[in-house]
Amino acid sequence: MPKTCGQQPEKKTKALSRKQKGSAGRAKTRLLVAKRHEKTGNARSDFQHKLSRQYIDKNPAIIVETLKVKNMIKTASRQSILPMCHGVAL
């Protein structure tokens, strides 16, 4: 699983919430937060694409199971399920 890019996104988001609405500093921080989220999303989708490509290259047949991600999120292990993006793989 790819790591998040650089500084933790939570710190940038917290900094954004402390800025005064309508200020130039808030606009700059908002763009930084958006870039960070986009970078993280791109890294996750790239990882999933590379992993699926490996599966396809190594295996002659692939069987797909339908998972109910919403039900999995309700359990106590949701902290580990959400970052992995199980529902996006196929």
Walk me through this protein's architecture.
This protein is mainly alpha-helical and 90 residues long. The chain has one domain. The chain is built from four helices and no strands. The model has no long low-confidence stretch (mean pLDDT 78).
Biggest beta-sheet profile:
none
- What's the pLDDT, averaged over the residues? 78
- Tell me the series of helices and strands, N- to C-terminal: HHHH
* Count of all domains: 1
Shape: elongated
Strand content: under 5%
Query: In terms of structural class, how would the helical and strand content be classed?
Result: mainly alpha
Supply the number of helical segments.
Answer: 4
How far the N terminus sits from the C terminus, by CA atoms, comes to 16 Å
Quick rundown:
This protein is mainly alpha-helical. 61% of the residues lie in helices and 0% in strands. It has one domain (9-88).
Main features:
90 residues, mainly alpha, 4 helices, 61% helix
Topology of this structure?
Elements (H helix, E strand, L loop, with lengths): L8 H10 L5 H35 L10 H6 L3 H4 L9
Helix pairs in contact: 1-2
